[in-house]
Amino acid sequence: MSNALNLYNEHFGLSERPFSLSPDPDFLYWTDEHKRAYTMLEYGVATRAPITLITGEIGAGKTTLMQHLLNNLDDDLTVGLVANAHGDRGELLRWVLMALNQLTEPSANYVDLFTKFQEFLIAEYAAGRSVMLIFDEAQNMSRESLEELRMFTNINANKDELLQLILIGQPELRDIIRRPDMRQFAQRIAASFHLTNMDEKTVYSYIVHRLERVGGREHMFSRKAAKLVYQETNGIPRLVNQLCDLCLLYACIAKREIVGVEHVRSVLADGAYFGPNANTAGDDSTI
């Protein structure tokens, strides 16, 4: 596998793989929407908003933005990252305390856990630090867990902000929060942004950006190839990465220096790409 990857990079003169599926803030492409989403994150942090909400489709770049934020936070913030929390409110507290490196006894009940959490927040505040909890994949949290997060924000007193919450999730999270029985939770959200998909022009610029980041040339992808990539991925960054990665591999196998529309069609025809429009593979009626 490593030899195949080396051949891929050497063929195009790349320093590393440009379209990895793993979120990497070093490759972050600042679309106008990502700039606004990140500004909203910064605003939430700076104003110590009780709850900041960022939503978007799977692969829209939410996790990459979050990682970029983590790399640029001040030292006076203690951060806990909770990914895919599940269970009742007692289990949620265990997830939170674990994220904050606080050990808990298996026999501890809800009151014990909440007391430990509150004492930790107060101790951090006394030491000149505030606490931020980031919940990734928050759309998977139950209504009970979301209500528990609202109760967390009650720990803040007057102007003394001990705790901030950032929720990152898919679009259905917005639908959950907009329900009438979630009105009190929604009122605690002081900053929010919803990331939509990239348009055709942005997809081409995104491809060029990632290629140039690893020493590639601007015109390694033809405009027609990029257009078909956009159509097949609906402009979702993670899917763009998946399809472009395979297209580079196919162009390498064909010993071509430029990825053309024929390479995209070959990937689609071979069923190597599993995107939302995969069943229409090879349809070139709009190219």
From TrEMBL:
<dbReference type="GO" id="GO:0016887">
    <property type="term" value="F:ATP hydrolysis activity"/>
</dbReference>
<feature type="domain" description="AAA+ ATPase">
    <location>
        <begin position="48"/>
        <end position="190"/>
    </location>
</feature>
<protein>
    <submittedName>
        <fullName>ExeA family protein</fullName>
    </submittedName>
</protein>
<dbReference type="Pfam" id="PF13401">
    <property type="entry name" value="AAA_22"/>
</dbReference>
<dbReference type="InterPro" id="IPR027417">
    <property type="entry name" value="P-loop_NTPase"/>
</dbReference>
<dbReference type="InterPro" id="IPR049945">
    <property type="entry name" value="AAA_22"/>
</dbReference>
<dbReference type="InterPro" id="IPR003593">
    <property type="entry name" value="AAA+_ATPase"/>
</dbReference>
<dbReference type="InterPro" id="IPR052026">
    <property type="entry name" value="ExeA_AAA_ATPase_DNA-bind"/>
</dbReference>
